[in-house]
User: Which sequence fits this backbone?
């Protein structure tokens, strides 16, 4: 068990934590907009921690091929980082434009 | 009516389920497919075609006719969308929006047109201001999506992928452009005619490569007879023939996707929608 393994385990557990929190949040949050919030978090930070863990694990036997594979993994993270918050943003935008009211704690009259 | 539909669907489903009783058991080594065909493919495909990916070898070589007509089906789907939905009538009132002030002009005279540019832009009843964040991100992403689509097409005979998948990804990049800007941007940039020509050319490439084998002395779709035309290792010629065919499929699928999307979202008018 060297230092790299410990780092990989910590990264994977961090990713797992965010994925678990995101999954619970999607189910437990009260309405459309607040559900999108954990969904966006889960896609960005969860995937970032997980894939960083994989990429570091992949570098155990260092060579040009494994480095290339790790760079490809980070490309996935990069594109998810770009597209996931944009998708969340556009979904919220569409909801606002369609006139969906946000959730409030008070009961609405009527 | 709903009940009648339900009864018909249930009967058809029951008949299909009854029909599956005659199927061989799941993974049965004595079933006809596992006895003759699969073993033949697995043992001989690499020697015969020099293609590392068995799925591609079966799809584009052993069952080339099937894939050819699948491509023709995609082309027909695009053509059907065009013929059924395309609306050439120009009897419409136009709306323009003054960009800097946001004033909306309603032009009832159908002959009059305003030049669209920095000052005025088209709009319609579903008009939404294009969002800066979405526009910027899509502008960054679309080239990467298109490069990835070309990668998928080019690697069809080495790894999972091929013409259909690559074509769909390439078509999706056009659709993303139409969503993030507006449909007008896409239609102005790539004319409807170009899409139509590309859809036909894609099918033609496939059929052309297949037909080219006949004057070279082989059967239809017998890629190995193309060897004199292409310098290089003659053993690899089947893989190259498949690559050519996959490129044809990719072009046809890309164009058909775009035609279907444009015609459906704008109900054939090619100016607004979504």
Assistant:
């Amino acid at each position: 068990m060297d230092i790299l393994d410990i780092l990989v385990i910590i990264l994977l557990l961090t990713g797992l934590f965010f994925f678990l929190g995101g999954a619970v949040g999607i189910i437990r949050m009260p309405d459309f907009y607040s559900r999108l919030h954990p969904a966006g978090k889960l896609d960005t930070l969860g995937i970032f921690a997980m894939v960083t863990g994989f990429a570091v694990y992949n570098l155990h036997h260092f060579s040009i091929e494994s480095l290339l594979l790790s760079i490809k993994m980070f490309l996935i993270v990069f594109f998810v980082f770009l597209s996931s918050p944009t998708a969340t943003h556009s979904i919220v935008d569409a909801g606002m434009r369609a006139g969906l009211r946000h959730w409030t704690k008070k009961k609405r009259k009527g | 009516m709903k009940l009648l539909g339900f009864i018909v669907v249930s009967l058809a489903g029951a008949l299909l389920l009854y029909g599956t009783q005659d199927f061989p058991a799941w993974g049965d080594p004595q079933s006809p497919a596992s006895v003759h065909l699969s073993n033949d493919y697995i043992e001989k495909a690499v020697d015969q075609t020099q293609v590392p990916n068995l799925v591609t070898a079966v799809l584009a070589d052993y069952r080339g006719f099937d894939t050819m007509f699948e491509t023709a089906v995609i082309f027909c789907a695009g053509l059907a969308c065009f013929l059924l939905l395309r609306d050439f009538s120009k009897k419409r009132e136009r709306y323009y929006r003054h960009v800097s002030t946001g004033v909306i002009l309603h032009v009832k005279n159908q002959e009059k047109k305003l030049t669209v540019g920095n000052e005025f832009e088209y709009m319609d009843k579903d008009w939404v201001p294009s969002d800066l964040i979405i526009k910027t991100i899509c502008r960054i992403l679309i080239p990467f999506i298109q490069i990835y689509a070309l990668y998928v097409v080019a690697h069809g005979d080495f790894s999972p992928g091929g013409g259909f998948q690559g074509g769909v990804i390439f078509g999706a990049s056009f659709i993303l452009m139409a969503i993030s800007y507006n449909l007008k941007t896409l239609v102005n940039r790539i004319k409807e005619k170009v899409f139509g020509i590309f859809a036909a050319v894609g099918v033609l490439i496939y059929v052309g490569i297949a037909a080219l084998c006949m004057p070279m002395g082989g059967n239809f779709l017998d890629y190995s007879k193309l060897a004199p035309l292409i310098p290089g290792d003659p053993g690899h010629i089947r893989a190259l023939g498949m690559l050519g065919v996959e490129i044809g499929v990719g072009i046809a699928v890309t164009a058909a996707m775009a035609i279907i999307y444009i015609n459906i979202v704008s109900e054939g008018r090619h100016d607004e929608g979504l």
Summary: The helical segments of chain A are 3-28, 32-58, 64-98.
